[in-house]
Write a structure and sequence with these properties.
By secondary structure, the protein is of the alpha/beta class. It has two domains: 160 residues, SPOUT methyltransferase, trefoil knot domain (Alpha/beta knot, 3-Layer(aba) Sandwich), CATH 3.40.1280.10; 71 residues, Helicase, Ruva Protein, domain 3 (Orthogonal Bundle). Helices cover 49% and strands 12% of the residues. It has a seven-stranded parallel sheet. Helix 1 links the parallel strand 1 and strand 2. The protein is elongated, with a radius of gyration of 21 Å.
Length: 249
């Protein structure tokens, strides 16, 4: 299961945090590190802070976008300190790790961490199916990113020791397949004029939340995209008919 789990650090600014996160991962049996546009990497400070987890750093995958980092993933868990205006369910690490292991039993899962200063963006949060908040002192709740990785990795290790596998009821579609549906849906809604009196970004956020709860399978995505294609074609025929009927007006 742990081999199917990747830790994704987005736009890390301090190389020491990358090294410390790699060390935290290795102590708990995690090996797959993905970095989205790190400011400094590779870097001697990262190597120094890894303190023996050099193999995790050497095998780290550097990505230019979040979609690249999540390619092939079927379940993304976003770490957040924010509890308001989150469009997905948010759990504690202990509550969430059993679900992470259930998904990782068969397919890739991502644990997504944001920048040191501001955490994850709304766009990044929108890529996740579940949020995780580490309970902390409400007057001083900011955790160092490497410390956050250590807490999550520890909770994952504890959950793995008591894990009881279940027969999966569905086989979720990969991240890129779901993102393809969202892009197709947004394009279709624009073409049929649905966004004329709506806030497109806000509406798409709510639609993402809706579909995240359903955990779409490949065949379901094929059905939905087929419906969108037929809708676009029908809308185009209506427009053409209208033009023909009013060309002399």
């Amino acid at each position: 299961m742990l081999e199917n789990i990747r830790v994704v650090l987005s736009h890390t600014t301090h190389p020491g945090n990358i090294g410390a996160a790699a060390r935290a991962m290795k102590t708990m049996g995690l090996h797959h590190l993905y970095l989205i546009n790190p400011r400094y990497f590779p870097d001697p400070q990262a190597t120094a802070m890894a303190a023996g987890a050099d193999d995790v750093l050497q095998n780290a995958v550097v990505c230019s976008s979040i979609d690249e980092a999540l390619q092939g993933v079927v379940f993304t868990v976003a770490m957040t300190a924010r509890l308001r205006d989150i469009s997905i369910a948010v759990k504690t690490p202990r509550e969430a790790m059993q679900e992470v292991l259930q998904q990782a039993a068969t397919q890739p899962v991502a644990l997504l961490f944001g920048t040191e200063m501001s955490g994850l963006t709304n766009e990044e949060m929108g890529k996740a199916q579940l949020g995780v908040n580490i309970p902390a002192n409400p007057d001083f709740s900011s955790l160092n990113i490497a410390a956050s990785v250590q807490v999550i990795a520890y909770e994952l290790s504890v959950a793995a020791q008591n894990y009881q596998p279940e027969t999966p009821q569905i086989v979720p579609a990969t991240h890129e397949r779901v993102e393809g549906l969202y892009a197709h849906l947004e394009k279709t809604l624009f073409e049929i004029g649905f966004f004329t009196t709506q806030n497109p970004a806000r509406l798409m956020q709510r639609l993402r939340r809706l579909y995240s709860r359903t955990r779409l399978e490949d065949e379901e995505i094929n059905i939905l995209r087929g419906m969108l294609t037929v809708t676009t074609e029908y809308n185009a025929r209506l427009r053409e008919r209208y033009k023909q009927e009013h060309k002399d007006v």
